[in-house]
Design a protein that fits this description.
Chain B: InterPro entries: MTMR12-like_C, Myotubularin, Myotubularin-like_Pase_dom, Prot-tyrosine_phosphatase-like. Chain B: It comes from Salvelinus namaycush (Lake trout). The structure holds 2 protein chains of 2 kinds. By secondary structure, chain A is α+β, with helices and mostly antiparallel strands. Chain A is 36% helix and 14% strand. In chain A, the strands form 3 sheets. Chain A has a 7-stranded antiparallel sheet, covered by helices on one side. Chain A has a 5-stranded mixed sheet with strand order 10-11-14-12-13. In chain A, a hairpin with a 7-residue loop joins strand 3 and strand 4. In chain A, helix 6 packs antiparallel against helix 7, helix 8 crosses helix 9 and helix 8 crosses helix 12. A 4-stranded mixed sheet of chain B has the order 5-6-8-7, with helices on both faces. In chain B, strands 1-2 form a two-stranded antiparallel sheet. Chain B has a two-stranded antiparallel sheet with strand order 3-4. Chain B is globular and about 70 Å long. At the A-B interface, helix 7, helix 8, helix 18 and helix 20 of A face helix 9, helix 10, helix 19, helix 23 and helix 25 of B.
Amino acid sequence: MASASIPVYNCSNNPLENSSSQNASRESLKMEPLAVTLLPGEERVIDKDIMYICPFSGPVKGKVFITNYRLYFKSADADPSVTLNVPLGAIGRVEKMGGASSRGENSYGLDITCKDMRNLRFALKQEGHSRRDIFDILFRYAFPLSHGLFLFAYLSQEKYEENGWSVYKPMEEFRRQGLPTDKWRITFINDNYELCDTYPTILVVPFKATEEDLRKVSTFRSRGRIPVLSWIHRENQAVICRCSQPLVGMSGKRNKDDERYLDVIREANGTAKLTIYDARPSVNAVANKATGGGYEGDDTYQNAELVFLDIHNIHVMRESLKKLKDIVYPNVEESHWLSSLESTHWLEHIKLVLSGAIQVADKISGGNSVVVHCSDGWDRTAQLTSLAMLMLDSHYRTLRGFQVLLEKEWISFGHKFASRIGHGDKNHADQDRSPIFVQFIDCVWQMTKQFPTAFEFNERLLMTILDHLFSCRFGTFLYNCESARHTNEVRSKTVSLWSLVNSDSTSYLNPFYTPESSRVLYPVASMRHLELWVTYYIRWNPRIRQQQQSPVEQRYMELLALRDEYLKKLEELQLTDSSPNSSHLSNSSAPNAASPTQHITHLHTPF
Amino acid sequence: MIIHCKDLRVFQFSLSFSKEEDAKKIFQGIVHHCLEPKSLRCLFAFSYCENTSYPEVQRKKQTVMFDSVEDWIQDMKRTKGNCRVVSENSNFELSPKLPQFFIVPSNVSDEDLTKYQGKGLPMWCWSHHSGCALFKTASIPLVQEDNVPQTYMEKMLTAVAHNHLYSVKTEDLSDTLPAVQDILLSYNKFKQFFLIDNTTEFWMSDMKWFSSLDNCGWLDIIRQCLQKAVEVVECLEKENTNVLIMEEGGSDLCCVVSSLVQLMLDPYYRTLLGFQSLVQKEWVAGGHAFLDRSNHLHLKDKAESQSPVFLLFLECVWQLQQQHGPAFQFSETYLTVLSDSVHVPVFTTFLFNNDSHRDNILRAESPHTQRSPLNCPTVWDWSVQFDCKAQDLFTNPLYSEKPKQDTSVRKSYRPKHLRQLSLPSSAFKTPPKKGFFKDEADNLKKILGVKRLSRWMLSPSSESPQTSSSVREFYEAWQTKPLDYHGLLLPCLDGPSIRVWMQRYLRWIHDVQILGGGPVAMLSKVSEILGEVQELQRQLDRHGCTLTSNHKGARPRAKTASVIAARSSVRLSSSFPFVTSRNWLFKPAIPTSLLQSLMVTGMAGNLADREDDGGGPESLV
């Protein structure tokens, strides 16, 4: 574990490294003594002697290998031994550093900004344009979509025992929730993505609303994202509905169909008042009127109350994470760490998202239906509904259930992964980029921290998800919505991340998991309990001890093993006891026999 | 009436239904007993002891009290120290300011002992297996033009240096760590964040939590103490230099740093009994002025000497324990309870300023003849405060004894010469340097004198950034090695690693209790399994079989587990065991100030029973 840059992730159970079990023969990078195994479909493009300017151990000479999937660096010397293993998808920006005439050591080279909270700098020899070829290749392969190339997910030949694409079947999931009911029906109106091109094909809507009503409502909701059911409480039939903002505009337009539609939602379980959670700060909601959007006014929506949740927009979140990166990479801010942390506002945003979700969950447990929206209903809305569902429904806290939750609330309902992450796109300054999904996973992590026994999956799963959010190795997080995925044949041409996870599910399980099915989980959304996810955001820093297993987990596993061992021994003993004649014999021949002597030797050893 | 307790509980009583007279009486009664100045004689401990007969046998169960010369000799033997045990002060003939028994470098002469009332006298704390040792001393204020104390100091330094390889580093903690008054100021600010009596106030303060925390500086003081301890550890462990830490008085930050150093280096002190012995050695026998520092007597003129130095130490221990859980036999709950017990004026442990003070008072207060001093319990008699079940919560289920415990202790203390041979040669260990010190002592003394005020006397570069980067390297070198919970432990001092002692500070605040969650949810599962394993082991033992495996979870106590297991049917909250969630409002805390008016009702549930039964009354702030 002496390597400076990748404390954990160069080990065998590296989530980025976990390859399929099917393919035995594969090309390896010619590396001595440690060779990295290439993924099926991965091909070497270039390799080059280079100097890695490691922010922790200084300049390191070595060799860089670039494939169509990753950048791999291995130091030439064993001390310090440094390896880098970066999927090209994680690269956000590649720049030349210094010019042919730059002075100073190591001033000529490449500067790479990654999406996973690190920057890499490489230095090359100044003479002979030595960086030109590597820069060009890196630029092409890191941003394939900008160069008419395929994302690696389409080139990968990985095979898994399990097909991850079958994890989520909308009909099955709705049936699990007890749908349809006499108040809620399943509609195929969006079968060809005509009602709403960013929604999935299968939707659950109030029984009373006709297809015609849905069409009318869709004209009054931003991008046609009408209120549809996300989750229903089995006992009290309260529902979480999600949608986009109403198109009220400056003139304060009204839409009778929309008003009636929301009232039908309220009626469905006899709630007196429907609560509409607008995730935005009220100021922003008002400002949206200028661009044709807005919010549900009290006077127009009679039986509804509107609550603003004060969660900021994608731009604020992007800047916040950028600030966070500034204080943790490469070095953790030393003076006034806490004030610096506060000034990034990252945890404050986490707090607001969590407390919004708590309010939603609380309303639902109280038997009141809620409608959640932000502007377009694919960022903050997804955060709130999925977190509330995680609190309310223990199924989503299992390994499989969590996958369903992501597939449903995020992937099928059109969180714009492609725009937010910018897969294969060179335009690093795109204003659409934002770490909304990272923030959501952070919220989930905060919950797992507060309730260490309530989740079937472990931190490793969350890390793996975030790694492959960027990596482009799997099709799971590609494209903005279901219709785009359909057009690009994601399901038939790429592998799902869940194939990887479910083929090796034991390594993503939390040993402390104690199922409690009927329990609503309310995390405490106070800064006193929220903490920075150090093992994710600061994981590149070698000073942060990366433990494969937490000591608590380790101890627990040890004890479990010990218990089994003792139980077995006890069984054996009871067997021998029951046959008194043989006891002598078995004592001398059984493995136990060695123990007394061994014990004695311990006592007498002078060391 | 609002009462703020030292353990950070806040009580609100309505007096509107009481008669005015009664209300006054209650109020005055509390003020009289809690806040007004009084004499030591009036403390509850004395009425308590007179009315309770306490069996002497039980007292000294296993904690080494360091109140006899044997205890000191034994501890020095244990660490293979080679110094002079001084027992001439057993009746305080040398000086009342000196402990009854103590250890000094072997070539300190009799007359050196009494000079300057013990000031400047290097007191042995602990010996490293290499032979070098840690000493602490009260510094002698330097008077200009007066060469005598300086000459004496140099003599003492030489004595320390002679202990091992003629090397010594000194550190004046008064120069580099915050003063006791600053510690108090910072803690007073810090503690206000937790003395919250209503929800609105709580959530209002939540957004600025991190910066307020930062501004009060408490965590930074903790970090500085830990960092200082790591510096000392580096000298002992890496350079094998003797270290002399000093400060005015020699019994505040010296105690903090020396006990931290010992915790980091010596796994014995990370056991429950070892830790209690450490507190006895460094703090009680070491003469930490508990009475003045905690101001039990509420004397106005002592107000400025009040300072939570011992709490600061416990805070540092908590940080170590958080970072390296499995290395400690005692639990977080133990530390919390110990920090509370400082304010329970029943135990002799925390009542006095030093040995002679204790001796005087206990003799004077004794109802009997001079022969037997008053017999009071020490805080280590946990059964005075807690029943067995509660005491089981003191042990940490993550701790496992080192395999082959009996022999390992001996094993780690290798013969000195072997150790020396294996060391890389460095400047002060080479013979020429030795000779230099001996022959040209005057010359060196001059150098010593010049560098007197610098951080480390023999380190050529004494700038602080240098030191901190060297500490950093030391930490990093240690970190790359596999972690041994029974070996050297170093804390990570980076910003995110130094944290707030959640259990101690948040336990009474209803809004932040995580129902059914918190680390206890995980630990109780470990305890459960531990209990099963121990039960199985007992069954196996009954079968007369000794096990081949190396006794990992094998302490012959199963109570820990069973007690928590029994409770796991009840839903634990993050405040366990201080608050149980019997009459819990199953409502989430929603952190919006608008909603707060609905939630002020929570007070009653908030103050649910504490674990301690039969403890003395809490004194009030």
